[in-house]
Amino acid sequence: MRRSLLEYVENKFIRQDVADFRTGDTVRVHWKVREGDKERTQPFEGIVIRKTRGQNRATFTVRKMSYGVGVERIFPLHSPRYEKIEVISRGKVNRNRLFYLRKLRGKASRVDVLDETETAKQP
Amino acid sequence: MSKGLIGKKVGMTQVFTEEGNLIPVSVIDVSTNVVVGKRTAEKDRYSAITLGFGEVKEKALSKAEIGVFKKNNAPLRRHLKEFRVTPEEAATVNVGDAVKADLFSKGQLVDVTGITKGRGYQGVMKRWNFAGFRDRASTHEYFRHPGAIGQRKTPGRVFPNKKLPGHYGVEKVTTQNLTVVDVDAEKGLLLIKGSVPGHNDGILYIRPSVKVALRESHKAAKK
To answer: Angle CA(A5)–CA(A10)–CA(A11) in degrees, nearest 5?
Structure first.
């Protein structure tokens, strides 16, 4: 009863057009930024290192290197504030959470890219 | 019109606002509110309406309790609460009327009363927000103590109501000026920004904010 009422509230805020991606994938998030009364999109591109679940509370973390500095942003998966999520490439990883990338620099911090045939096999 | 509602705390979650901001909300179930009785100035010397909340089987109540409902020809309810209203307001409702969540509107400020979670026997730091002691310079086994509690020969006693360790929680608390984020009259749900007192499934009383009412009466008096 309790869960079902909470889920009822949460399900009202779920976005239907959520892109299908997993941790390890490289994505570009088109985040809408409001400047004064103008609105523009600001893409943020990087590797998804974490996805958390939970109805409308689900989030994902994108990590990228910006001028040699690691930058991570946490996005709510069902936020109306992004225009779309573009999946640039599928990553081949052995973990669900890629926190080890934080310690790595340069070539070591790359994630193997799944080729097309393997991508097709993914659910 | 009633002046408040009885509800049950369902739990907390997050919702997106129209601007896309994510805000924390408490979900409160107010689905089964019914007017079960009235107090009148002639008979009871004050005017109020009694709300009932939570459906209940007849066998779960005592004969005396059932008598209260039978006398007024009202449906059985588990929880009762009186809300003071003016006689004119009381005249607008009848016993047996359902009171819906749309008593409140989006953006309105409300006060929510509930019984807080029990925390057991607690020290002064948790119970009264005392600062405790420094953990350096030879402080020995004296980190979370209350410190001195009295003076000297005068007064020679500890004043009443001195803040000391003891049982904390399970007390009636009202959180004031919480914003109503959303009203779902159909499902009987109120979404209120932030936290409300007590555990999940706890009984809450939701009333329009007294401070807003006070401010408005001051404004009216100035004019």
So the answer is: 95
Three-state SS sequence of B63-128? HHHHHHHHHHCCCCCCEEEEEECCHHHHHCCCCCCECCHHHCCCCCEEEEEEECCCCEEECHHHHH
How many whole angstroms separate alpha carbon A57 and alpha carbon A94?
25
Tell me the chain B residues in contact with residue A76 when contact means C-beta distances shorter than 8 Å. 16, 22
Contact residues on chain A for B28, CB-CB shorter than 8 A: none
- Answer whether A2 touches B (CB < 8 Å): yes
B193 inside 8 A of chain A by CB? no
Sign (positive/negative) of CA torsion B138, B141, B147, B153?
A: negative
**Can you tell me the distance from the alpha carbon of B18 to that of B197, in angstroms, rounded to the nearest whole number?**
27
Residue contact A5–B29, C-beta within 8 A = yes
pTM for the full predicted model: 0.83
- The alpha carbon of residue A81 and the mean position of all alpha carbons in its chain are separated, in whole angstroms, by 14
Cα separation, A29 vs A35, in Å, equals: 18
Residue from the list B11, B15, B200 with its beta carbon closest to the beta carbon of A13? B15
Residues of chain B in contact with residue A9, where contact means CB-CB under 8 angstroms, are 13, 15, 25, 27, 189, 191
Residue-by-residue pLDDT tens, chain A, 123 positions: 567 888 888 888 888 888 888 898 999 999 988 888 888 999 999 999 999 988 888 999 999 989 989 999 999 999 998 888 989 888 888 889 999 999 888 888 778 777 765 555 555
Measured between CB atoms, which of A5, A13, A57 is closest to B10?
A5
User: Is B32 in contact with B54 (CB distance < 8 Å)?
Assistant: yes
* DSSP 8-state symbol, A106: G
A53 interfacial to chain B (CB closer than 8 Å): no
Q: Which residue has the tokens 């943020």?
A: A44
